Amino acid sequence: MDLLRNYVLICGVIAWFIAQTVKVPIEYLRERKWNWSLLFHAGGMPSSHSALVTAVAYACGLFFGFETPEFAIAVTLAVVVIYDATGIRRQAGKHAELINAMINDMASGHPLKEEQLREVLGHTPLEALAGVLLGLVVAQLGWWIFR
Questions:
Q1: Structurally, how many domains does the chain consist of?
Q2: Domain span including residue 89
Q3: SS3 47
C-alpha cells in the first residue's frame, strides 16, 4: 500500500498523535484529575495542529528538498494553521469564556440552563511553540528512520 510509504504523512500523523496523547498527563499534572476527552479536543498543551503541520513541512524539506514547491506549500499551510490557532481560534475561546460568564450571571437563580460554549479552542504562543518543536523532532526522527 503506497500510503504506508508516504513518510511525510506518517511523520505528521505521529506528531499529531503524540501531541494529542501528551495532553492528558500534562492536564493531570495541572489539575490533578484525568480528562480523557482531551484526546479528541482542540486546544491545550502542546498544540497538535502545530505539531502536525510543522512535522509535514519539515519532512517535506528533508525528503524532497527545502527549495521545492512541496516545501513552500507545506510551510505556507503551516504558517496559516499556526496563525489561526494562536490568533483567531484563541480569541474565539476568549469570547466563549466571556459569553459563558455572562450567561451564568444572567441565569443564576433561574431554572434556565444554557448550553456552555467550549472555551479552549485555540492555543497560547507557548502551546503552539511546543507543538512546533514536537513536529520538528518527529520529522527529524522520521527522516533518520525512513531515508
A1: 1
A2: 2-146
A3: coil
